[in-house]
Amino acid sequence: MRGDPMSPLPWTTKSTRNLAAELTRQGHRVCADTVGDLLREEGFSLQINAKTIEGAQHPDRDAQFGYINEQSRQYRDAGEPVISVDTKKKELVGQFKNAGRQWHPAGRPERGNVHDFADPQPGKAVPYGIYDIAAKNRVGQRGL
After folding, report:
1. How far is Cα 16 from Cα 96, in angstroms, rounded to an integer?
2. Do the beta carbons of residue 141 and residue 129 sit within 8 Å?
3. What confidence tens digit (pLDDT) does each residue in 89-134 have?
4. Whole-structure pTM value
5. Phi, psi of 91 (to 5 degrees)
6. How far apart are CA 125 and CA 90, in angstroms?
7. Closest Cα partner for 20 from 40, 35, 39, 37?
8. Which run of H or of E encompasses 69?
């Protein structure tokens, strides 16, 4: 169970299979599909966290973007290149599990480390993209 123990709304991360096994252990014979059906009937669904909490903004945020926009306009008007660099989430380099899936021969998945402890040797990759604002095209996409 997760959530506030004093709340009437605790929740769990157990799979329907694990919930069915626990209910069966307690004397309530039920299969995982039935557990899923019951949860849906009660208004539950599988969900991921939603990024909705904005947090505090820096007091100079608008001034910063205004300055950047003005500088960009001046350089663009002078015929100089203006680029935007967008970085992504840092990723561990090596044989680590990832959320994606790839096609492989049946029963022969890519092998990965049992634990995702960062290896200091290869380090982390920081994928990024470069966009030429004036030319309106992607210059490149790389990882460091």
Report:
1. 27
2. yes
3. 777 777 776 666 666 778 777 777 677 676 777 777 777 778 777 7
4. 0.37
5. -120, 140
6. 6
7. 35
8. helix 61-77
